[in-house]
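Note to self: keep these together.
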Amino acid sequence: MEYHSITLEKSHRSIRDMESTPLRLPVLNRRYSHDDDIMTTDIDYFEDDLNDVILRNDRIALLEYLKKGLDPDHVFRSRERQDRLGKTILETAVTAGHKDIVKLLIENRCNPDLMYIININDYVCLLQPYKKKNHLKMTCMYRCIVKEDVDTIKLLVQGGSDVNIYDDRGCSALWHAVDLDNYQMVKAMVQCKRVDVNVADRTMLRPIHVASMRGNTKMVSLLISKGAEVDPVQLRGSTALILACRKGCYETVRLLILNGADPNHAGYNGHMPLSTVLQWSLDTRLPIMLLESGARVDPDLVKKCTQENLPIIKDHPDLLEILKSCSETPRTLKIQCCLLLRRTLVNCKVKLHLMKKVEQLPLPRLIKEFLLLGHLL
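Structure:
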């Protein structure tokens, strides 16, 4: 019988444990070989059988392979089948949509983020693990995101998949899930212990920005509960509150304000939440709520509303009178002090929710409720 060998990278269960020194691996066939140095000519037949087991969703047959010593991180390595060369059996199962196979591999502690690239070195075909963080689009997770396969995503997260891996634009798996406006997918991903809900793409756009642009209040609430910063600034200087105001979603705007969003932050184009609402929305509840939460009214804003005849002012002329009154009449000293104290608490570097900060202050209950904008509830 003739033998030939193929030099490969050693397949480990953790990417960080992988060594760069290539060595020869044993490959299972129907009669498991314990020879660590060579691959028999049956390798293509074994891998054909293994591939068929996965494609026909034969969980029992795959379990037998695993009991006989098949590495759950096994990578297809036959050069005669270029269509699957370098693919892991998990990747094959995910592509085929066979959740039972995926679950079995996860239970056997496969590495859900393990990906290989083919490298030709000195006429030797090497399969090397891809270790860079920007390989999201190569992963099983990304395939599930595109198909919105939440059940498989739950399995991958359960198996330790890193949802902070990002693509060439800096968008993480969580970022994409939020962009799809898929709450169940986001909920599945934030169960990952290592999830970073504040990862931004190259334009400094974070998941909370995207959720606010979508007007998805439930998703914004979930992100905040998992530690999302409320007032980060994206490339053009806009906060999540400004983006929510542009969307015109009352509930999202209210949620952000209650969690400490600054109603007076100005983007690089000069727009604040109040001016954004007046330009893009017809809901009079929004400007009133912003005014009650401390939004300042500049005389130039009143002048702009008058000159440009904004739709919201045209439909509700009484709103213009309210804006004029706010720009001409200073707020009471009590309200100014409370708003200043609220801004100070929001900007405090102590990592506590605003509500917990307020509760620790020796103040009357009425003042605490005002600091928390209880009148907006």
